[in-house]
């Protein structure tokens, strides 16, 4: 390729990656900073580096080639990656608290089973890392060859040098920050490429061809496990779905500040990766649909040079290179830690300057990987995805099995684990080399052998341990309590469901919104009908005669809302129901029907999307997704039953278009609308909480003024928060226009917290004054005490805890405890206890327990661990 826009984009990306990597490496001085940083990474950054490490260039080539060649078989196995990410985040992460202070997977294994297991784990991890880096450099060689028409070997060497420059020097911090840039690059490139090919291809008739149907939609054939191909891909599904917890991914776990952040990071990464793999598989599907006779190993090259245009081509090359570098640098960094920290140290090999030793090891590993890549015969017609399987061949049967068992609470001796490791390695060698069984990868029988011999040696040799459970139960208990509370809250909400209140919550609270919705519905209807083809209108005259008045009638009713008689306005349920009818029927159902009548014309799709977004902004996002999904699907089914000829106007790919529309709109709502609404809900709850407190305490604050014997204490305790409120309020008033949005938000936060502290103190004094009254009366009522504690804990955490809190609350509460008492005093008591715990515990675990002591006594304990 000559020096043009594509080469400028490609070279610019490489230079940017190197510069960012070197810049972010500044200040790394210790082995811990090199290995896992300072644990100050955000959740989004960790999620980005997880996806960037997972999304290797080898995987991209392999997915495209294998999906083109094997269709649904490969798509089925690809989806297991997402299951693996969710499994790590939801199942494994809460059980891994004891490993968060470890620098590597080998150190974690050594802490459990001794130094020999640690050394073997380090060796297996080094072999895995070298294999994966070599596989990435092979793809790098192909990309450089495509870009500059140079020999593949030169590309391998250049790719290794670029990747080694910053990962060798900067450690995990430079790797992580460059991963973010690389994720943005290829996560943008893949869907852009899919959209361009989709727009370029005449997909309406191609997707309905018998070849496409047979390869991509033959579910019966794929899930028929009596044939060897289905069995092979079932094993590949297991390989992808079982968390290997390799060196690089253990590092991604170790850089998190707590298990909660691990869970969030892997769940977010799972959704991002699902979107990426579906886009990659969609690219393969479209390429096969339009060009079914390509050699699988040439598909990626064909896509780059024949399915794109100048500019996009350079962007694609940069995106694939981002996948390559992001994976290779992660394994290079983690492997250098394994060698110095977990291989040399247990063997007694002293390295006085460990940080320098890691950097030298990293450079040597790059050279070894380049040698492996050059000696393996690149571009000779075999599938690159098999290299990834080969790289894991000895790691998973040796390390993964005992480590996963340890996470779930099974501990044994180093002897039993070593026996299992040896059995796994021997099984892999026998299965692959002697038996030569190809349709079942040797990894699966190797893992089974390891597990079998580990259990057998543990129980037959009577080793200590067994299913002893995990060391730190606090995060797991906290998650179980939270899940139990959510289930209980959901059941309670179902039992107390009120349709009128539900409609009220999912309707606008401003009468102008009723007018604007009715107006937009009328404009949208006229715009849709006016731009539909004249002959289409002639074909369905009765349908248009029904649609127009049925939509305009409720829309006009909303438009004339200010003219409604007062007795109708007072019955707000009528307006709420009318608005939901217009939103569901007028905007979504009718909008989608007219979109189908227009053959999914871009203008009509745009109007429908705007309608959905408008609805989502005025109701809760869950209800918006429910309305959108049910409206589109019900309209499609009714049209299919009553007007099947409309579907023929759209295309043969209408189901694909509907799926795309649903995924697009749901994604928009979840990504953009959901966080905004959750933030608004939180702010509203805080405001309501403070308003109730102010109104309830006005009279009590007056009594406080008469308590002369505590006057000095009152003045001292309220002086600081009162001054904060006055000072910050004055600053906001004087400099409001010159402050940034962040500064305004921070000022408001200070005022809120200062006010809450002041209000809380004065409330305590007011309650204290009540106790001096001669005729003290309590408002006795039956209270679910356990539920009250959970409710007050949630409110206090929202009001008093900082966003980057390192506290964990562990609740051990009897759910069936009910008492008779005064709710306001009990709330104040619980709030004070929780607030004091938050103030006196900057990080750590706060245990809250509630249990019965006989028939008339309770024990409530809040303990800082």
UniProtKB/TrEMBL annotation:
Pfam families: SSF. The chain crosses the membrane at residues 6-28, 40-61, 73-95, 116-137, 143-168, 180-198, 231-254, 266-289, 309-328, 355-374, 394-410, 417-437, 443-461, 512-531, 543-564, 576-597, 603-621, 653-673. Keywords: Cell membrane, Ion transport, Kinase, Membrane, Sodium, Sodium transport, Symport, Transferase, Transmembrane, Transmembrane helix, Transport. The keyword Transmembrane applies. One of its GO terms (biological process) is sodium ion transport. It catalyses: L-proline(in) + Na(+)(in) = L-proline(out) + Na(+)(out). It is a multi-pass membrane protein. SUPFAM superfamilies: ATPase domain of HSP90 chaperone/DNA topoisomerase II/histidine kinase. It is found in: Cell membrane. Belongs to the sodium:solute symporter (SSF) (TC 2.A.21) family. This is Sensor histidine kinase YycG. It comes from Candidatus Phycorickettsia trachydisci.
């Amino acid at each position: 390729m000559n020096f043009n826009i594509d080469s400028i984009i490609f070279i610019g990306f490489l230079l940017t990656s190197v510069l960012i990597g070197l810049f972010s490496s500044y200040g790394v001085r210790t082995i811990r900073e090199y290995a896992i940083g300072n644990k100050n990474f955000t959740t989004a950054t960790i999620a980005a580096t997880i996806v960037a490490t997972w999304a290797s260039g080898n995987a991209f080539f392999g997915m495209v080639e294998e999906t083109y060649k094997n269709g649904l078989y490969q798509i089925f196995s690809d989806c297991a990656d997402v299951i693996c990410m969710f499994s790590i985040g939801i199942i494994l992460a809460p059980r891994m608290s004891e490993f968060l202070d470890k620098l590597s997977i080998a150190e974690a294994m050594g802490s459990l089973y001794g130094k020999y297991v640690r050394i073997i784990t380090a060796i297996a991890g080094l072999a895995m890392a070298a294999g994966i880096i070599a596989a990435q450099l092979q793809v790098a060689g192909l990309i450089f060859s495509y870009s500059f028409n140079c020999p593949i070997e030169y590309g391998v060497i250049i790719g290794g040098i670029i990747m080694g420059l910053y990962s060798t020097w900067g450690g995990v911090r430079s790797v992580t920050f460059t991963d973010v840039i690389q994720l943005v690059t290829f996560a943008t490139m893949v869907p852009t490429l899919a959209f361009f090919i989709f727009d370029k291809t005449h997909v309406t008739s191609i997707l309905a061809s018998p070849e496409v149907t047979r390869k991509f939609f033959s579910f019966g054939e794929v899930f028929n496990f009596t044939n060897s191909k289905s069995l092979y891909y079932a094993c590949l599904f297991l390989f992808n779905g079982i968390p290997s917890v390799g060196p690089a991914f253990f590092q991604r776990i170790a850089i998190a500040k707590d298990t909660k952040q691990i869970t969030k990071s892997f769940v977010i990464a799972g959704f991002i990766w699902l979107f990426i793999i579906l886009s990659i598989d969609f690219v393969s599907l479209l390429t096969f649909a339009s060009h079914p006779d390509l050699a699988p190993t040439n598909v990626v090259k064909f896509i780059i040079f024949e399915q794109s245009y100048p500019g996009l081509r350079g962007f694609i090359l940069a995106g694939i290179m981002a996948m390559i570098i992001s994976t290779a640098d992660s394994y290079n960094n983690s492997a250098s830690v394994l060698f110095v920290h977990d291989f040399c140290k247990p063997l007694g090999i002293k390295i006085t300057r460990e940080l320098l030793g890691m950097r030298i090891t990293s450079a040597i590993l790059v050279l070894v990987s380049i040698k492996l890549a050059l000696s393996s015969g690149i571009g000779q017609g075999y599938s690159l995805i098999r290299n990834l399987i080969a790289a894991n061949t000895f790691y998973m049967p040796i390390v993964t099995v005992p480590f996963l068992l340890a996470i779930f609470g099974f501990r044994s001796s180093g002897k039993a684990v070593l026996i299992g490791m040896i059995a796994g390695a021997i099984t892999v060698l026998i299965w692959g080399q002697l038996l030569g069984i190809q349709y079942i990868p040797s990894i699966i029988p190797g893992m089974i052998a390891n597990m079998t011999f580990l259990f057998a040696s543990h129980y037959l040799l009577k080793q200590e341990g067994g299913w002893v459970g995990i060391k730190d139960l606090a995060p797991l208990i906290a998650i179980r309590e939270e899940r139990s509370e959510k289930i209980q809250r959901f059941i309670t909400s179902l039992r107390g469901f009120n349709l009128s209140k539900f409609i009220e919550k999912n309707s606008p609270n401003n009468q102008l919104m009723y007018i604007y919705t009715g107006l937009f519905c009328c404009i949208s209807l006229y715009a849709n009908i006016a731009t539909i083809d004249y002959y289409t209108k002639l074909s369905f005259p009765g349908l248009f005669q029904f649609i127009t008045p049925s939509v305009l009638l409720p829309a006009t009713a909303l438009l004339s809302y200010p003219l409604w008689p007062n007795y109708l306005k007072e019955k707000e349920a009528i307006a709420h129901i009318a608005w939901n009818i217009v939103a569901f029927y007028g905007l979504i159902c009718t909008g989608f029907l007219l979109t189908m009548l227009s053959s999914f014309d871009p203008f009509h799709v745009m109007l429908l999307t705007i309608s959905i977004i408008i609805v989502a902004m005025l109701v809760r996002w869950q209800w918006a997704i429910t309305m959108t999904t049910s409206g589109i699907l019900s309209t499609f089914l009714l049209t299919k039953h009553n007007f099947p000829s409309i579907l023929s106007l759209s295309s043969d790919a209408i189901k694909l278009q509907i799926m795309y529309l649903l995924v697009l709109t749901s994604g928009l709502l979840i990504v953009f609308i959901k966080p905004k609404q959750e933030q608004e809900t939180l702010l509203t709850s805080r405001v309501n909480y403070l308003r109730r407190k102010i109104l309830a305490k006005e009279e009590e604050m007056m009594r406080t003024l008469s308590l002369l014997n505590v006057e000095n204490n009152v003045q001292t305790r309220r002086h600081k928060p009162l001054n904060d409120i006055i000072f910050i309020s004055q600053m906001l008033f004087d400099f409001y226009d010159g402050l940034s949005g962040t500064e305004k938000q921070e000022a408001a936060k200070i005022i809120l917290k200062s006010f809450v502290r002041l209000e809380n103190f004065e409330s305590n004094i007011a309650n204290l004054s009540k106790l001096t009254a001669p005729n003290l009366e309590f408002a006795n009522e039956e209270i679910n005490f356990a539920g009250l504690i959970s409710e007050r804990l949630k409110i206090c955490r929202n009001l008093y805890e900082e966003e980057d809190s390192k506290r964990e609350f562990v609740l051990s509460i009897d759910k069936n405890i009910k008492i008779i008492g005064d709710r306001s005093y009990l709330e104040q008591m619980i709030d004070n206890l929780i607030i004091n715990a938050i103030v006196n515990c900057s990080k750590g675990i706060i245990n809250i327990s509630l249990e019965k002591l006989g028939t008339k006594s309770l024990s409530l304990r809040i303990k800082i661990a």
